[in-house]
Amino acid sequence: MEPMLKAAGVEGRAAGGEQEIPLDKIAGSVAPDFKSGDFDPGFLPLNRRMRERWTRIYQAIVEGDELPPIDVYKVDDLHYVIDGHHRVSVARNLGRPTINARVVNVRTRAPLGSGVDTESLLGAAEYAAFLATTQLHRTRPQARLECSRLGRYDVILDHILGHAYFLSRELKRPVPIPEAAASWYDHVYHPVAEAIRKHKVLDRLHGWTEADLYVEITRRWLELSKEGEPSGPDPAIDSLLQEHARRWWQRRRRIQLSS
Question: How many CB atoms sit inside 10 A of residue 40's CB?
């Protein structure tokens, strides 16, 4: 968890006090015991020593003994266990909806989802580096540019640097990257995002994020312009959706032929 938090860009930690937290919001663990193979991802013990302790805690809870609260980090809307894995496992097994916990609230520049793997960790690191350069989380806190594939933040940063060049020529002065990034978000990204929402592209292309679509749409926009075709967000979106539809029909045809 500590490498994960570092990758996502920790901005602060604060005690959240003792509170009841939903068990379905516990996404993982920060403890070495959890990562070394003593527990599976569902917090079930994997070896005899752990199972014996699990049984003792199970009996204590069933008999009404008051156990100390678990300790967790809270990142965004999810919790990661510092101490108390057996109590989490037993509570889940008993069907309890919540568990008492001492919470440490952690704020990061980049969001972290549940089940974070290596690629997600690298993606969080890319996003945190992108935000550190552009400062969009400060100048445009509503901006959530989450990409599902590695390398796309570099493409977006190139767009911002290009925008900075033309903006500096227009204003006849050097333009810092954070200023250029805010202008790019307002005048380049936002219109494309509005077109994405207008055409409901996210409903039709599952697995894509809005930032993914921005990268692909602007690439197609440039290709259409080079070919002398009508260009802009709407023609680029039409091109993307038509290609998606063709691939869908091709896949369906292959399935029909093989069945």
Answer: 11
The tens digit of pLDDT for each residue in 122-151 reads 577 678 789 889 999 999 999 989 898 877
Give the span between the Cα atoms of 2 and 106, in whole angstroms: 11
Distance (Å) of CA 128 to CA 34, 109, 125, 144, 194: 26, 6, 5, 12, 25
Which residue type does 75 have?
V
- Residue position matching structure tokens 């510092």: 82
Domain assignments of the chain as residue spans, ordered by start: 2-108, 118-250
Residue 53 has pLDDT above 70, yes or no: yes
Provide the strand spans (E) within the chain.
10-22, 26-29, 70-75, 78-83, 98-108
Q: What is the pLDDT of residue 151?
A: 79
Amino acid type, 185? Y
Contact between 26 and 115 under an 8 Å Cβ cutoff? The reply is no
Q: For 2-108, CATH number?
A: 3.90.1530.10
pTM over 0.90: no
Neighbour tally for 254: CB within 10 Å = 10
